[in-house]
Specification:
Layout: H1 2-27, E1 35-49, E2 62-77, E3 80-91, E4 110-120, E5 130-138, E6 160-169, E7 172-180, E8 215-225, E9 228-247, E10 252-274, E11 279-291, E12 297-311, E13 315-324, E14 370-382, E15 385-395, E16 400-401, E17 407-408, E18 411-423, E19 428-439, H2 441-444, E20 459-467
Antiparallel strand pairs: 1-2, 1-20, 2-3, 3-4, 4-5, 5-6, 6-7, 7-8, 8-9, 9-10, 10-11, 11-12, 12-13, 13-14, 14-15, 15-18, 16-17, 18-19, 19-20
Length: 475
């Protein structure tokens, strides 16, 4: 009875937060131009028959509707900015009233997505365009979001609790950010358990990272030129050290956190160059070094290039290739062996490596890296109606073991992603997509997805409505 009362109280408190924001929204003097109040309502129905990983041939198809509801409130005052975004993310039916929330407390979807204040350090007569300090929970996103992005496709998206010193002037951008995470207020020590619990949800990283960083520091530099943009990133994310302790009968291995960190460094460049009026090149080159989250020495690389050609007024075609290094699957992995698997940090995998999210998303796929040959097309049928068709050819970037001392085919599969996007109004978008993959036996093997009796023709479809109101818009 106490647990039920406590759970109902949490739900009541969550509803009070949204109610309070709503009162603030509509009770404020809307003639004040410094105040912003927007929202988002985004339900998405998905049909999953092999999404994220292969399913066995006798597995049932999954169908569900998830929903994001978000309220955003901002205010700009003299030499400061303030912003709060509260969101509710849930699956329809997970907390049906007949359940009385006695068994679904962990599914409570109310979350503080962003809450930050920004102090403007330069005054109004300064020759510098912007010099500010942004403090608090915030989205951090740069360039094409391949390694640093908001991951907006995921209904809960991604945030960081961080402080960022921001500089912008005469085409230059320079940001220095830092974060330091702790599980709670401590009396001694700074040991951090970054493994998510049932209530804390996903970690910030990609590729099934499985643990959040203890601390992070980064430097981002960018310059706009007449021919395009070039940027440089150096990011250091640090993971709490641990020791595996074996005890009991039968023996059980337990991870015990201890003082100290393992540091992973990522450094590289991004470019977006307009070669001609209708041809542009976009790509990146990154190198990772230091130690991974398990303390192994790290040396890995990412190389990417995309060419986008405009043909006529409506059609855009973009061939390209991504290379993310990996380990040799025929070599034994030890605590002292070097890790050559590149991890795309806190990027947006859904945008690059197939919308079925087989790679660098929540479901792991081995450690042999990825080669992604792709052709992306976009056709503006009307001003408010756009068609997309992307073709991906996926291959392991390093040798795949067959589990018996030999090698197996490195080709993993071919994926076709189709999407249609319709802007019903300026604030309402309707989007639908269908994806199909022809996977290989290598994809199903124990070295990649590890699925027995796998269906090698997975498919996935969705329909999504995105309503983004501006509550202060009088039109």
């Amino acid at each position: 009875m106490q647990k039920i009362t406590s759970t109902m109280q949490k739900t009541k408190n969550s509803k009070s937060i949204l109610l309070g924001l709503a009162i603030t929204l509509f009770g404020y003097n809307t003639s004040n131009a410094q105040f912003t109040a927007t929202g988002q309502f985004r339900p998405r129905t998905e049909f999953r028959d092999g999404y994220s990983t292969l399913q066995s041939k006798d597995a049932e198809t999954a169908v569900f509707t998830s929903q994001r509801t978000r309220l955003n409130v901002g205010f700009t005052g003299y030499r400061f900015k303030f912003f709060v975004a509260v969101q509710d993310v849930r699956v329809w039916g997970q907390d049906a009233s007949t359940i009385n929330k006695t068994t679904t407390a962990d599914n409570n979807g109310i979350q503080l997505h962003e809450a930050w204040g920004e102090i403007i350090l330069n005054d109004t007569v300064s020759s510098i365009q912007n010099l500010s300090l942004k403090i608090g929970r915030q989205e951090i996103s740069y360039d094409d979001q391949k390694v640093i992005g908001g991951l907006d496709w995921l209904q809960q998206a991604r945030y960081h609790d961080a402080v960022v010193l921001k500089y912008a002037n005469k085409g230059w951008t320079a940001d220095f950010g830092a974060a330091f995470n702790q599980n709670k207020e401590l009396l001694a020590g700074t040991i951090y358990n970054g493994v998510p619990t049932a209530t804390s949800g996903y970690t910030a990283g990609t590729n099934g990272l499985g643990t959040n960083y203890k601390s992070m520091e980064y430097l981002y530099l960018a310059k706009k030129f007449f021919f395009g943009d070039i940027s440089f990133l150096f990011l250091s994310d640090n993971f709490n050290k641990y020791t595996n302790v074996t005890s009991g009968t039968p023996p059980v291995v337990t991870k015990v956190n201890e003082q100290g960190i393992w540091t992973r460094n990522t450094s590289g460049f991004y470019y977006n160059i307009n070669a001609t009026r209708k041809l542009k090149f976009e790509g990146s080159l990154y190198h990772q070094f230091g130690h991974d989250k398990n303390g192994r020495s790290l040396s890995s690389d990412l190389t990417s290039i995309t060419a986008t050609l405009q043909m006529g007024k409506k059609l855009f075609i973009g061939p390209g290739v991504d290379y993310l290094s990996g380990n040799d699957g025929t070599k034994a992995v030890t605590a002292t062996s070097e890790n050559n698997q590149f991890d795309p940090l806190y990027g947006t995998p859904h945008k690059f490596w197939g919308t079925m999210d087989y790679f660098y998303a929540s479901s792991g796929f081995g450690a042999q890296g990825l080669l992604n040959y792709f052709l992306k097309t976009k056709y503006n049928l009307r001003d408010n109606l756009t068609l997309f068709a992307d073709l991906h050819c996926f291959e392991a970037a390093n040798t795949l073991s067959n589990g018996a001392g030999g090698k197996q085919n490195s080709y993993l599969g071919t994926e076709l992603d189709l999407k249609i996007s319709y802007n019903f109004t300026k604030m309402i978008n309707i989007e639908a997509g269908y994806s199909f993959m022809q996977a290989t036996n290598s994809m199903a093997s124990a070295q990649v997805k590890n699925v027995a009796n796998a269906n090698l023709t997975p498919q996935w479809a969705y329909v999504m409505v995105n309503i983004k109101p501006n509550f202060l818009n009088k039109k």
